[in-house]
Amino acid sequence: MTSPPPPSDSVASILAAAQQRAVERGLPYSGAVTPTEAAALLAALPGARLVDVRTRAEWDYVGRVPGSILVEWNTYPECTRNAAFLEQLRDAATNVDAPVLFLCRSGQRSDHAARAARAAGYSHAFNVLEGFEGDKDASGQRGHVNGWRKARLPWVQG
């Protein structure tokens, strides 16, 4: 059996930055990545999974990342915590040793999901900072300051 190749310099630097953010913020999971870093990891690490924890309505009407997996953190329209989250995560991301990157609207629900995943045994759980839509601007609108869409990363709507 051969060992996997060492990570490229860019992947290694992204993982180091993510781990440094985890240390600085006292995160119990592997780290926090920017949307651009998340896209780079997904492209470079074949077993990596992007798990979108927004609601089905957000996924359908706001947009989604092609190839992402939907596992709602909160259910819609009830807006209650999805009691089956971990079960659904295990069905969608079966390898607990592969990188799992969690994405939501702005990085809050995905932080909770990464915490829950790490506690459930996922050894490489990451939060995608800024989320899909990013922070609100001065007018209270998302999508103009930061986030996956603002970074012009691949996404589709409808």
Key structural traits:
5 helices, 158 residues, alpha/beta, five-stranded parallel beta sheet, disordered N terminus
Could you describe the 3D structure shown?
It is a single chain. Helices cover 34% and strands 11% of the residues. By secondary structure, it is of the alpha/beta class. It has a 5-stranded parallel β-sheet with strand order 1-5-4-2-3. Strand 4, helix 5 and strand 5 form a beta-alpha-beta unit. It is globular, with a radius of gyration of 15 Å. Residues 1-5 have low confidence and may be disordered.
Structural class: alpha/beta
- Helical coverage, percent range: 25-40%
Radius of gyration: 15 Å
Q: The biggest beta sheet, please?
A: 5 strands, parallel
Number of strands: 5
Strand order in space, largest sheet: 1-5-4-2-3
Count of helical stretches: 5
Q: Give average pLDDT, whole number.
A: 94
Strand content: 5-15%
H/E element sequence: HEHEHEHEHE
Summarize the structure.
The protein has 158 residues and is an alpha/beta fold. 34% of the residues lie in helices and 11% in strands. The model is unreliable at 1-5 (pLDDT under 50).
Give the helix/strand layout:
Blueprint: H1 9-25, E1 31-33, H2 35-44, E2 49-52, H3 56-61, E3 69-70, H4 85-92, E4 100-103, H5 108-119, E5 125-128
Parallel strand pairs: 1-5, 2-3, 2-4, 4-5
